[in-house]
Amino acid sequence: MSIKDKFIDLRSSITPLFQQIPARVSASFTGSSRKTRVISASAVVLTLVAFGAAGVSPITTDPDEVAVRAISAELELPSLDEQIAKLEAQQQLYVAEDKMRAGDTLAALLTRLGVDDDAAASFIKSDGSARAMLRLKPGTAVQAQTSNDGVLQMLRATISGGADNTPKNLLIRRDGDKFSVAEETPTVERRVEMHTGVIRSSLFAATDAADIPDSVASQIVAMFGTNINFASDLKRGDHFNVAYETFWQDGQFLRAGRILAGEFVNSGKPFQAVWFDEPGSSGQGGYYGFDGKSLKKAFLKSPLTFTRISSGFSMRIHPILGKWKKHTGVDFAAATGTPIHATADGTIDFAGVESGYGNVVIIKHDSKYSTVYAHMSRFAPSSRKGSKVSQGDVIGYVGMTGWATGPHLHYEFRVADVPRDPLSVVVPTATPLAGAELQRFKTVAADITHRFNLLSGSETTPSAPATKLASK
After folding, report:
1. Which of 28, 199, 245, 278 could be cross-linked to 257 through a Cys-Cys bond (beta carbons 3.0 to 4.6 Å apart)?
2. What is the per-residue pLDDT for 392?
3. pLDDT at 463 (0 to 100)
């Protein structure tokens, strides 16, 4: 029986029942109470709803009555041999990267890069500009683009450290059977990184543990060197925060730049510094404390970066004369050849040999102050009488010339030609910021303070973009 016949049969059986409903309802309502009529009406309504639902509910289709049709078609698969042949016919280019190693030869470098090209090797050796590839510093990344059979298409390396410290890309390209060399200025991305460290043994050990470059560690010494002697003042548990520039090319680290801000807590005493453009300067600036006072003092606390004091400013038994004699300076023990830095700007008044002092340099800073550096093994090339020196310039190297029993630097600080203890003498500082410059500085310092608090975990508010650390 078809679905249509089933539906007609169902309708025929239901129709008489519906025709009887009005009469039955009327009969049940006649002479009945109000409660009976309500119950009867409700029953009728429910009955109608039930039959209506049954009338509209879907009727299950008989699977035997569903028409099924089979469709078949032949599909042509591409030839695998043809695909391989096409790929082999195409010229594929491959890129490899490696780093220059100490004692590397051109042949060794090209082999690691997958280059098998005698013509390219001969060109690099013979061309004056291309030979710069052989003078790359160890660690410099080199990229090569080659064909399937190792023929060089392009060789690139980044050269930095020029007069303006701007990186250059050295590019060697193949054009048919010829090669060309060019220098291009790459797109460099500037970032600002923030790190924190704790002193366990030495500053450089702490910066290594915090993944801070050595060039930044040296800047920390220069920045706080007028307040902290990093050879003798450091204590276990001292800690620091630092924010500095880094420069990247195509996601590859090029170099670290200037420290933008630093904070060093030494024996519980905090020292802070922020790089800020000096008023009226053009791209020049200096480090200031968070209170706007310049950190640049007239004299560094020590003429050597890392050392220890072997003899202070006091009476002592002279190690050679064997009798009590006033020691008019401070002796810094250090290895022979350790660089000696001028502790302040000035003019070299004497550079030569003097009895007892050996090789000695005397610097006049003004009519009142002068400093003496004795027992040098040798002088810096620029250390000549009348030469101008700036604070931090290398003027010579540690030795043991003159009356000395071991390599060290004898350092004197003279006021009106009278020796004074360089570790306790009070020296002047630069003029602090004021007015509009001070207000601008306070904005920068407040942002730095907030960021350092976040770095140390003393604040929980979200940080703003780190690029706002710089004042320009």
Report:
1. 245
2. 85
3. 37
- The Cα 101–Cα 111 span in angstroms is 13
Residue 380 and residue 387 in contact, taking contact as beta carbons nearer than 8 Å: no
Taking the C-alpha atoms of residue 52 and residue 464, their distance in angstroms, rounded to an integer, is: 67
Q: Evaluate whether 169 touches 186 at the Cβ level (below 8 Å).
A: yes
- Tell me which residues of the chain have a pLDDT lower than 50: 25, 54, 315, 318, 321, 324, 460-472
How far apart CA 279 and CA 441 sit, in angstroms, is 11
The token duo for 251 is 């996601």
**Residues with Cβ within 8 Å of residue 395, at least 6 apart in sequence:** 340, 341, 342, 348, 361, 363, 373, 379, 380, 382, 383, 389
- Distance, in Å, from the CA atom of 9 to the CA atom of 144, rounded to the nearest integer, reads 86
Give the residue among 393, 391, 433 at the shortest CA–CA distance from 301: 391
Helix and strand numbers, DSSP H then E, in the chain: 8, 22
| 357 to 65, 365, 376, 422: CA distances (angstroms) | 119, 20, 9, 18
CA angle 184-187-193, nearest 5°?
Answer: 135
- Give per-residue pLDDT as tens, 7-35: 556 556 655 655 555 555 455 555 556 65
